[in-house]
């Protein structure tokens, strides 16, 4: 029996929390990048500048919402919604604390993988519907990137699934009470985090939107709030990547003294900061480098990791 | 092993950037904090006066000739109070053209035209950037507090005869310079 009021409350908290955090992250990223580049970043509006995203939003609403005459209108309009919807759907299976989860699916990992694959479609059809060459190039890169990272993303988190013996994310977190999976599954963690960076289109794998080469990649033709949706979607997937990394490899809500929610948010924030730090530091991969790295290095490593983990689990089971 | 070098360098890079969290930003937050501008900063152009409070400009047109963008316009006229002096009837600088190169200041024989450490000249209308003489003329002496062209010039002026200027020897009687 589902407790409807509890579920509704959880949905509200997670939805509101994720969207607020995504909005806040726009400011946090600019501020942190500023600090790491020895400047201040936006610090005018509100305490420390934290209302900057609000001002950005007001500004972006006043922008002309232009649909290019050469674009495929229906698909063009739908795409930004797909980005945000798929990112938010994935939050349904994210367990923040014991029983603090919208839907405790017994195949939560698969649901997460499916939703992240769907999010890739928005990039592809968004670039195709724009009908311009830069957007199209961005989409082409996104497709090639999707083919290379989706495979080892799934493979590298299978190790955690094998150790926990369950596709349920809450069970995976509970299996890490003794030792976090990052210790036995370090290769898996590296592969998953790398694939996650590629999926969220973050440096050093942000080729689909490489602003130095492709204007803005797949969302070159988008303006106004449609562009804003892509932006929010990107930050939602950053939050999602951090949350999933914490759940799968860093013990989720487990931790001494502090309440579970606090531990979860702390760990997640640490990963968000790490992702921004990576953006501040590392240059973008060249495109062929990403593909050859994905197929020739990470993919075999993920396979070996899976093989060894499976062997160890079978041997322990006797 | 190459891969260890890569891994080490990548993490080292992350650490170096992360250390910047604890350094003070170099930004000068302009409207509240103001940058130090050296006295020789080439900013807004002014016309100065000599220590007696009279205009230094003698309307020689050298600044207008030196100006590479031709933004200085002036008209010389005889000073009605003294026949041996000229002054600019109007003096106009078009700051929308000015490139603040300072060549007018270098060309000026009387230190009248000077560039000052002030860059806040933004205007909403372009025509407001055309400064007339009353906008340019200041009551002070600028960078040279004691300098008065007419007191050091080796010519006869209304106040002194030839040879009576500061740091000037009396005129030499060339006929007495016999070997």
Domain count of chain A: the total is 1
Please indicate the percent range of residues of chain A in DSSP E strands (runs of 2 or more). under 5%
What's the total number of strands of chain A? 0
Number of helices of chain B: 5
Mean pLDDT value of chain A: 84
Average of pLDDT of chain B:
87
Q: Structural class, from helix and strand content of chain B?
A: alpha+beta
The main β sheet of chain B shows up as: 3 strands, antiparallel
Uncertain regions of chain B: pLDDT < 50 for 5+ in a row? none
- State the helical fraction of chain A: 55-70%
Topology as H/E string of chain A? HHHHHHHHHH
Distance between the termini of chain A: 37 Å
Whole-angstrom Rg of chain B: 26 Å
Strand order of the largest sheet of chain B: 2-3-5
Give the largest interface: A-B, 12 and 14 residues
Main pleated-sheet profile of chain A: none
**Oligomer designation:** heterodimer
Number of helices of chain A: 10
Low-confidence stretches of chain A: none
What would you note in describing this structure?
The complex is a heterodimer of chains A (318) and B (179). Chain A is an all-alpha fold. Chain A has one domain (64-317). Chain A is globular and about 65 Å long. Chain A is built from 10 helices and no strands. Chain A is 68% helix and 0% strand. The mean pLDDT of chain A is 84. Helices cover 20% and strands 13% of the residues of chain B. A 3-stranded antiparallel beta sheet of chain B has the order 2-3-5. Chain B has a two-stranded antiparallel sheet with strand order 1-4. The longest helix of chain B has 18 residues, at 2-19. Chains A and B meet through helix 1 and helix 9 of A and helix 1 of B.
């Amino acid at each position: 029996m589902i407790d409807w009021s509890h579920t509704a409350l959880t949905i509200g908290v997670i939805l509101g929390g994720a969207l607020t955090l995504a909005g806040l992250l726009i400011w946090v990223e600019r501020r942190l990048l500023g600090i790491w580049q020895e400047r201040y970043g936006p610090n005018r509006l509100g305490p420390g500048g934290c209302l900057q995203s609000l001002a950005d939003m007001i500004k972006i609403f006043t922008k002309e919402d232009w649909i290019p005459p050469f674009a495929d209108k229906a698909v063009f309009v739908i795409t930004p919604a797909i980005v945000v919807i798929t990112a938010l759907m994935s939050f349904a299976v994210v367990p923040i604390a014991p029983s603090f989860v919208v839907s405790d699916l017994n195949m939560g990992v698969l649901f997460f993988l499916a939703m992240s694959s769907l999010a890739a479609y928005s990039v592809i059809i968004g670039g195709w519907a724009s009908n311009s060459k830069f957007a199209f190039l961005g989409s082409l890169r996104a497709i090639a990137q999707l083919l290379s990272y989706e495979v080892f993303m799934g493979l590298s988190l299978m190790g955690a699934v094998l150790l926990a013996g369950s596709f349920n994310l809450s069970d995976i977190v509970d299996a890490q009470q003794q030792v976090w999976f990052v210790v036995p599954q370090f290769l898996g963690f590296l592969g998953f985090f790398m694939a996650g960076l590629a999926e969220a289109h973050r440096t050093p794998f942000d080729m689909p939107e490489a602003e130095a080469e492709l204007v803005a990649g797949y969302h070159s033709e988008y303006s106004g709030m449609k562009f804003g949706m892509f932006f929010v979607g990107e930050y939602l997937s950053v939050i999602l990547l951090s949350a999933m990394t914490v759940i799968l490899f860093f013990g989720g809500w487990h931790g001494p003294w502090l309440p579970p929610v606090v531990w979860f948010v702390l760990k997640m924030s640490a990963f968000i900061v790490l992702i921004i730090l990576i953006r501040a530091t590392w240059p973008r991969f060249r495109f062929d480098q990403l593909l050859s790295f994905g197929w020739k290095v990470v993919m075999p490593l993920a396979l070996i990791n899976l093989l060894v983990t499976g062997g160890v689990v079978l041997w322990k089971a006797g | 092993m190459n891969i260890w070098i890569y891994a080490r360098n990548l993490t080292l890079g992350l650490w170096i950037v992360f250390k910047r969290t604890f350094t003070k930003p170099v930004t000068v937050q302009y409207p509240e904090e103001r940058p130090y501008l050296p006295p020789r900063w080439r900013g807004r152009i002014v016309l100065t006066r000599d220590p007696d409070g009279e205009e230094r400009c003698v309307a020689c047109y050298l600044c207008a000739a030196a100006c590479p963008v031709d933004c200085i316009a002036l008209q010389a006229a005889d000073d009605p109070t003294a026949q041996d002096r000229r002054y600019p009837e109007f003096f106009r600088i078009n700051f929308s053209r000015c490139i603040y190169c300072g060549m007018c200041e270098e060309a000026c024989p009387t230190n009248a035209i000077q560039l000052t450490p002030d860059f806040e000249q933004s205007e909403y209308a372009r025509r407001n950037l055309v400064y007339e003489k009353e906008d340019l003329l200041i009551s002070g002496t600028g960078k040279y507090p004691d300098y008065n062209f007419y007191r050091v010039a080796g010519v006869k002026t209304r106040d002194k005869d030839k040879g009576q200027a500061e740091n000037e020897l009396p005129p030499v009687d060339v006929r007495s310079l016999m070997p």
